[in-house]
Amino acid sequence: SARSEFGMLIGENPAALFKGFSATALRQCALGSSIFIFWDFFAKRSDKYDPNPQSSVILPGVERLKVGVQAGVCSAVVVNPLDVIKTRVQHSHHHLSLRNAFQDVLSESGVRGLFYGTGYRVVQVSLGALISMSIIDQALGSSASFSLAKNSA
């Protein structure tokens, strides 16, 4: 069971709990940054984008969801190689650097191997980006309209 495996892992090598931590941190930074970059890119190209909204809406609801999905798809595809490398590092039975993991994937599967699991990642990241970027856009729009209303009073 997972509980007994976890206990064995801690008993044998507590450092194994942090195996691949740097790869995970790198992947998360790249993913978070790319989602914001792609969201901004697609939002500004939307015909419904309003950089100076009078209301609290920078993009209307459906358009906001569409832009969130677009940002998620692009981010998932761009960052997927880092996810494959991170998984390789975490599942190795010996110490494996990011560089060695990258070289292993390329030697075993070629460039195509860096994109294994992309379909799953696209669904996962797109849903997350859709939700999080919609909330962030709404929150930023609301705070912008609040500060405008406060300053005009």
Q: Tally of extended strands? A: 0
Low-confidence stretches: 144-153
Strand content: under 5%
Helix % is: over 70%
Largest sheet features = none
SS class: mainly alpha
Please tell me the overall pLDDT.
Answer: 80
> Termini distance?
63 Å
Which sequence of SSEs, written as H and E, runs from N to C? Answer: HHHHH
Give the radius of gyration: 20 Å
What overall geometry do the principal axes of the alpha carbons give?
elongated
Q: How many H/I helices?
A: 5
Tell me what you see in this structure.
The chain has 153 residues and is mostly helical. Helix content is 74%, strand content 0%. It is built from 5 helices and no strands. Helix 2 runs antiparallel to helix 3, helix 3 crosses helix 4 and helix 3 (61-91) crosses helix 5. The radius of gyration is 20 Å and the shape is elongated. The N and C termini lie far apart (63 Å). Mean pLDDT is 80; it is low at 144-153.
List the SSEs and their pairings.
Elements: H1 2-12, H2 21-44, H3 61-91, H4 98-109, H5 118-152
Which features does this protein show?
153 residues, mainly alpha, 5 helices, 74% helix, disordered C terminus
